[in-house]
Amino acid sequence: MYEGAVQDLIDELGRLPGVGPKSAQRIAFHLLAADPDEVKRLVDALTEVKNKVRFCERCGNVAQDELCRVCLDPRRSDATICVVEEPKDVVAIERTREFRGRYHVLGGAINPIAGVGPDDLRIAGLMSRLQDGTVTEVILATDPNVEGEATATYLARLLVPMGITVSRLASGLPVGGDLEYADEVTLGRAFEGRRRISA
Amino acid sequence: MFVTYLALTDFRSYRDVELELEPGVTAFVGPNGQGKTNLVEAIGYAATLSSHRVSQDAALVRAGAERALVRVRAQRGERKAALEIEITPRRANRARINGAPVQRVRDVLGLVRTVLFAPEDLALVKGDPDGRRRFLDQLTVMVRPRMAGTLQDYDRVLKQRSALLKSASAALKGSRGNADLRTLDVWDAKLAALGAQILAVRHELVTALAPHVARAYEQVSAGQGEARIALVSSLDRVADDAAPPAEADQTPSAALLEARLLEAMSRLRPQEIERGVCLVGPHRDDLSLELGGLPAKGYASHGESWSFALALRLACYQLMTTGVPGWDEYQDSEPILVLDDVFAELDTGRRDRLARLVAGAGQVLITAAVPGDVPEELEGARVDVMGGQVRRVR
Ligand SMILES: Nc1ncnc2c1ncn2[C@@H]1O[C@H](COP(=O)(O)OP(=O)(O)OP(=O)(O)O)[C@@H](O)[C@H]1O
Ligand SMILES: [Mg+2]
Ligand SMILES: [Zn+2]
Predict the structure, then answer these.
(1) Residue of A113, A154, A174 lying closest to B160 (CB–CB)
(2) Per the domain annotation, does B341 fall within a domain?
(3) What is the dotted CATH code of the domain comprising A4-52?
(4) Of B49, B66, B162, B274, which is least packed with CB atoms within 10 Å of its CB?
(5) pLDDT digit string (tens) for A89-98?
C-alpha cells in the first residue's frame, strides 16, 4: 500500500478494463514522474471525451444524445440485433449495407489474460433488451479470433435456451483478425452466409 | 525440391549476402563463428518461420539493425517460387510470395521444406518434453501447413484458460484474483476442440513416423539396438483408473479425443482450479524414445543419443518424401536436407553410413569447420564462409 493520493490513483486505474494491479501501479508511477503538461493533456482529453462523446444508453454505440443514430432510426428492424465488440465494428458493418437491424456493442471480448470477464462487458444490457420478445434473431459478430470466438460461444450458450435464433458470421473472414479490417465485400458475404448456432 | 537462391539483409552477422545454390550437395566451410550456421538457419526459417537455435526472433536481426530480410527462391519440379520474409522483432513479420504480399505470414509455410539436423537436436533425446513437442509441431506444420493456425489458436486458448484458472486459484487462496469461473466451460470447449485436432494429427504422425525411425536408427548404428517412439498423451497419464482402459487405438478420431479431453477436464477441474494450471492437452504430451526397451533419456550413451536424434530427423526426411498415408497434400516432395556441424560429432562408422544415406538426396546443405569434416562420398559444391563473406570455391 502507498500513501493516500498515490494509492487512490492506483485503485482508480485498476478499475479500468484490461488494467491489472501491476499495470495500474506502473501507470501511476509513470504519471507521477511525467511532465505536468503531459498529465494536463491527459486530463483534458478525458474531460473532453466525457463532455462531448457519450455512449448510447441502449446499445453502447457512440452517440451524441442518449440514443445513437441506429437506435433512433425508425426504418430499421427491431427483430434482429447484431452483437459486436466495439463501436468501430458498427462502422465496418454499416459500410456493407447488408444489415438493417439494430446493434449491441459489448465493449470488448472475454479475455482472462487482460482480466476481462462477462461482467466487464455489456451483457446484462443485451439480456434486458431480449426480455420482451421483440428480438427474434441475434447475430454474433465478434472478431474472428480466439477471444471473439469464446465470447460468441459464451453468448450462444446463454441465448439459445431462451429460444432466440442465434447465428454467427460465416467463415471467410480472415481468421485471427479484427472485424474492422475485413473489407466490405468479404464482410458482406460473411453476413449473408451466417450460420445458425443450435447448441 | 531445392533452393536456387538465398539472399540475406541484416540477418544475424550478415549485412548483405547473396548466394546461388544447386541441387546436390553444397558444403559451407569455414572456421568457427564465421556465419555458416547463420546461412542454413535462414533457409530453415523460410521453411518453418522459426529458428532451430532461438525461440525469439530478436537474435536473428543483425545487431544495430531494425529488421532482417530473408529472400529465397525455391524450385519444385517445374514450379518456381520466390519468397521474401521480413523479420521485425516484437512486431508482426511480413512476407511476399512472387512479389505479392501475403495476408498472413504463415501462408508461406509449405513453399520451402527442410529437414534440419543440428547439434541442438541432442536435446530431443536428452532434454525436456517441450523440445520434443516442438519437434512434433514443426513436423506437423511441414506435412500439414494448414495446422499452423490451429497450433497458434491452441496456444492462445491455453494462455487464456490458464490465466482464468490462475486468477481463480489466487482468489481462492485469498490473494487478489477473480473467482468468476462462468466462462471456464467455454474455454474447456475451445481447448478440447483445438486440442483434439492437434492430438489426432500427432497420433497419425507418430504412427507413420515410427517405422522410419526404427529403420533410420538401424542404418545409422549398423543394427545396434531397436529404436522405438510412441506418443505419450497427457490423456492417458491422467486417465481415470476406475474407468475401463481406453482402447489402444493408434489413430483415434478427433471427435473421440475431444470427448476424452472434455471428460478429463471436468474430472480434473478441482485440481486445475486449486493449482491454477491446465493439466491436460497436447501441451502436456511427450514423445517417448526407447532404445532396446530402455528409455533413451538417462540410459543411452552419448553416441547412441546422437544416433537417435539423427534417426528422428532422417525419419522426418523419409516421411516428408513419401508423405503420410491418407494425407493428400504435400506428398511426394522431397525436402531439403540440412546437416549443421553433424559429421564432426560422429565416429567414423556412423559418419560413413550417414554420408551414404544422404548422398542420394535431392539437395543437401552441410556446414563444417574444416574441409576434412565433409565425408568424401559427399563431394559437391563448396562455399567458403569467412567473416560474413561467402565465396564459391568449387
Ligand atoms: N544478431 C546478430 N548480429 C550480429 N552478429 C551476430 C548475430 N547473431 C549471431 N551473430 C554472430 O554470428 C557468428 C556466428 O555465426 P554462426 O553461428 O553462423 O557461426 P558458424 O560459422 O556456424 O560457427 P561454428 O563453426 O562455431 O558453428 C558469431 O560471431 C555471432 O557473434
Ligand atoms: Mg555453426
Ligand atoms: Zn444505440
Answers:
(1) A113
(2) yes
(3) 1.10.8.420
(4) B66
(5) 999 999 988 8
